[in-house]
Amino acid sequence: MKSLIRFSFLAFISLSCITQKSKTSPVQKWLNASELENNGFVGIKIFDPKTQEVIFAKNEKHYFVPASNTKILSLYASLKNIGDSIPALKYALKNDSLFVSGTADPTLLHPDLPSSKTFDFLKNSPAKTIVFSDANFKNEVYGPGWAWDDYNDYYQAELSSFPIYGNIVRFKKTNNELSISPSIFSDSLFFSQNSFSEIKRNIDGNTFYTTPKTTQKSNFEQDIPFKTSFSLLQKLLSDTLKKEVTQKSFMPNKDFKTLYSLPVDTVLRRMMQISDNMLAEQLLLLSGGKYSDTISTSLTIKNIQKDLLADIPQRFNWADGSGLSRYNLVTPEGLVFLLDRMLKEFPKNRLFSLMSIGGQVGTLKNAYKSGVPFVFAKTGSLSGVYNQSGYLITKSGRILIFSFMNNNFVGSGTKVRIKTSEIVTFLHENY
């Protein structure tokens, strides 16, 4: 007996009584000829925002785990609430002390982002002492439903009110020498007799272990989240700014000014194209600043649901900003609704430039043939999950909005990804 049940998309779809207009038959015919080994659950919606025509729909009102399609929600929240530039911190200069309260801005000394104004501002401040408060941070360092044993993986950095260096340690082989950034962790790496293929951090602290075989590759590079704390932040800031850093509990008030760091699109583009979880989580926290000085994922989501998404067709079960949590549940129809709204509220060129671009850049770089790009979307994958939602431009010039959601399949998602991209390409060529 075969371990996987063989489906064709059409066979799967045809088993359900779907009444579609005859014009959808080319899509169905193509799907019928395209087999997919998959024993999962599929949801699809394809929509023309200009004519308001539903090109195709299947299980579009059913809930699916979105994985990184959740970042579409975080993108919308950020576009609506953050503004053109990211608020880096709130500050007040009193005598020879600079009082600083974090906003959750992730850009300070981030290894993969341009230099921001924040470092120079803190470095060149006339204040002798920086007094830091995280009293506004009312959040856990991990999102709800995150896997505890992913603490060592680059994609699960801890959340904080004042991230620095992306909240990760970067180990990189350069000229046969292993460099460690921030350098403050250089004396925290030890050799272990255990056998493992990557550098491992102690789960309870910032002690790292390696083996002689771990870093043999000349191009070795690994990012590991560090365990956040004020004492570590104090050391990192003191080391880089060469100033005294102390802590005091206070909330920013009307006397505090706001410093801005990078253009928001610079950070949003990396979040969407590279699918950066840390940026997604911190940007969602930042977007909550419109409603409250309290930094809280749950409070932010509650306010955004009420303020921006009250009319969504099926209310999202929204748990985090990145999609790491399987508590997130959305529908293809809901995602298409949100993508349609975004297209109405923001310039098309700006919106498309933030997405992963098929054949060009991001997680869709290798999913489509290079040439004139026609897909601008977000992927989402976990074990048993592969989704792709966004915009496509057809050869006739139509813009279509689509959401393909695949959950609960067994085995590799490669075949699901390939077939999804083939269907999107078919739409591009035939509509």
Helix-strand layout with pairing:
Layout (H helix, E strand, L loop, with lengths): L5 E3 H6 L10 H8 L2 E3 L3 E8 L4 E6 L12 H11 L3 E10 L2 E6 L14 H8 L4 E5 L34 E7 L2 E5 L7 E3 L8 E2 L6 E3 L10 E5 L4 H12 L2 E4 L9 E7 H12 L1 H11 L9 H11 L24 H14 L2 H7 L1 E2 L17 E8 L2 E9 L5 E9 L6 H17 L1
Parallel strand pairs: 6-7, 7-14, 10-12
Antiparallel strand pairs: 1-2, 3-4, 3-19, 5-6, 5-15, 8-9, 8-13, 11-12, 16-17, 17-18, 18-19
Helix pairs in contact: 2-11, 3-6, 3-7, 6-7
What does this structure look like?
- By secondary structure, the protein is α+β, with helices and mostly antiparallel strands.
- Helices cover 27% and strands 24% of the residues.
- It is built from eleven helices and 19 strands.
- It has helices at residues 9-14, 25-32, 71-81, 117-124, 230-241, 264-275, 277-287, 297-307, 332-345, 348-354, 414-430; strands at 6-8, 35-37, 41-48, 53-58, 85-94, 97-102, 129-133, 168-174, 177-181, 189-191, 200-201, 208-210, 221-225, 244-247, 257-263, 356-357, 375-382, 385-393, 399-407.
- α2 (25-32) packs antiparallel against α11.
- The longest helix is centred in the last third of the chain and has 17 residues, at 414-430.
- It starts with 5 loop residues before the first strand and ends with a helix.
Summary tags:
alpha+beta, 431 residues, single chain, 2 domains, Beta-lactamase, six-stranded antiparallel β-sheet
